[in-house]
# Entry
Amino acid sequence: MVTEEDLGAWLAEHQSVVVFTGAGISTESGIPDFRSPGGVWTKYDPRELTFQRYVASADVRARSWKMRREFFAAGAKPNPAHEAVARWERDGRSPGVITQNIDGLHAAAGSRSVARLHGTAAEVMCVGAAPVGGQPVGCGWREDTRWAFDAIDAGTADPMCPSCGGLIKSATVSFGQMMFPEPIELAEQMIEEADAMLVIGSSLSVYPAAGFPEIAAARGMGLGIINAEPTPLDHLADVVVHGRAGEILAGR
Ligand code: NAD
# Structure
């Protein structure tokens, strides 16, 4: 049985710990993860909201905007786990955080180097009139997500890009959508700088994102995992702590 003291010793052993987070770091901020009862994903089937279906159907887009609104209704604030991650970067103990989350809570806690593998729900972007192969082909137009909600409230059921007339989508990575190259590059840079990776609140079941901890382990870096339940990569880690991230990391 690994204790929280072992985690403290493991953290002290490493010079530079890159953090990798999933939806579980934000549940204590009131944002449900994939599996939580009553969570967003129990009401909206992600298989229905793939990139391909989104670009093909105005009905799917309408349903997706409805889901986005529910996601934002939480009005979430960072919790002690996000705060610890930001503090480690400020203190020079971490190059930053690689996240699967789209909720903006790392930046809100003060993290500056954040590789958002799945984009951000705070912005919308033009994905072009006819993207194929899961690849956005937009004109570069981006706006605060509020812009889309305001357009819908003003009676536009399916807002289009004011710059080129293309389709508008949340600046997140949907199922079936290619990942953005910039956060992947930033994540790789941070892994280069670090001698260990700490995973917080990820089921490590969504690829390719979950491949990053595998890369860290394959390079011989230290690997720590904090999660409420076992993950498929626990056997690769030096330290695994099962519990609530905010409670475990408060004040660290
Ligand atoms: P996941 O839902 O697959 O797994 C979350 C893991 O966190 C679970 O294993 C759960 O047991 C654990 N967990 C829950 N609460 C915890 C806590 N307080 N402390 C420690 N562990 C806790 O999440 P994932 O691996 O990030 O994959 C989900 C995908 O869905 C991601 O790609 C992400 O983009 C998206 N998503 C994002 C958000 C968000 O931005 N907050 C929320 C839901 C889903």
